[in-house]
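ESCALATION

Customer reports they have been waiting on this structure for their group meeting. Please prioritize. Original submission:
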Amino acid sequence: MKQRLVVIGNGMAGMKTVEELLSAAPDEYDITVFGAEPYGNYNRIMLSAVLCGEKTIEDIVINSRQWYIDNGIQLYAGQDKSVVRIDRVGRKVIAEDGTVAEYDRLLIATGSKAVVPPIPGNDLEGVISFRDIIDVNKMIGYAARSRKAVVLGGGLLGLEAANGLVSRGMDVTVIHSNEVLLNRQMDRQAGKMLQTELERRGLKFKMAAKTEALLGDEKGHVQAVRFEDGSRLECDLFIMAIGVRPNMTLAQQSGIYCERGIVVNDTLQSYDPSIYAVGECIQHRGDTFGLVAPLFEQAKVCANHLSAHGAAEYITLPTATKLKVTGINLFSIGDFQGDEHSESIHFTDPALGIYKKLVVNANKLIGAVLYGDTADGGWYQELLEKGDTISEIRDVLIFGRAYAG
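Update from on-call: job pushed to the front of the queue and completed.
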């Protein structure tokens, strides 16, 4: 008799877990998946490529609906199939339209929600997040008929949205609360080089700006942004891209222990031993997650336990940052700012647009920022993760693997 596995969330983390599980124990479970979007599973990372026009929705589908059929998975997809209640006593989930599925094991992979800042006017028409295919389709529609867009957030997501809209012919200004773009991933010099390159491509920036309110027209559509200094910026479209937070509402309502996310142990189990959780909805040893590499690692560990092979443990490693904007190479990992106990090694070639910074502490690499030439990023990441001493190669470390022998 097969066990019943129910998965809430049809995104990348949940489906990667299912793929790993099918590979490790293909006959262990009858699998039912609930997804709020009316699609199979698609690659959310590639949404910026769809926005740019480099890819179509079809290009970024990872598992089509046929894949679910071929693997004997029951897929309930669409807004009315969103799970609204978990009955932990009866071990079943209930969807918005009344669909019920019973489980022996439950996997929660509800992802994250866009952070909506409490700015007056954030509910006007033309104010959207950059989170899913529906958002991207809206943005493409606006680009075809409107002129001015403002993007709130100079992080990875904001810059990808802004770049996509510029490539579709819009006049785009990025508002950022910091003086440095990607300030969580880049130091000042790399951030300034990035800004110069993006300005060359037609993007405009309003840095260290504080947004006061969004102003609408008589039809309730956004028409301008007002700042704390009294200045205004007109716009037909306002994109909010200041980050995400774990989508844990359903878990909280079901009495599953949550802090900043659904709290899981090293085997991705929640405080309820029959319920696992992976992806952007979780909190593991105090960390929450927003990049894909740790999500896929979590999926492997979770599948290992669901398939009763139960030896793997999830360990959070530093995750590298890359920007998905064609022709711009940047890489960042670890503690790239350093402190009074660390030292920095720099290399700059302004003519070629190359900047490298390595942060070393006690003869170990603890952080790196590469701009323009990121070929050695993977090698630096390896050194950082292993924690090997670099004393033998310290003199040539900045020049990369080829020089270090």
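Sent to customer with the following note: The domain at 330-404 is CATH 3.30.390.30 (Enolase-like; domain 1).
Escalation resolved.
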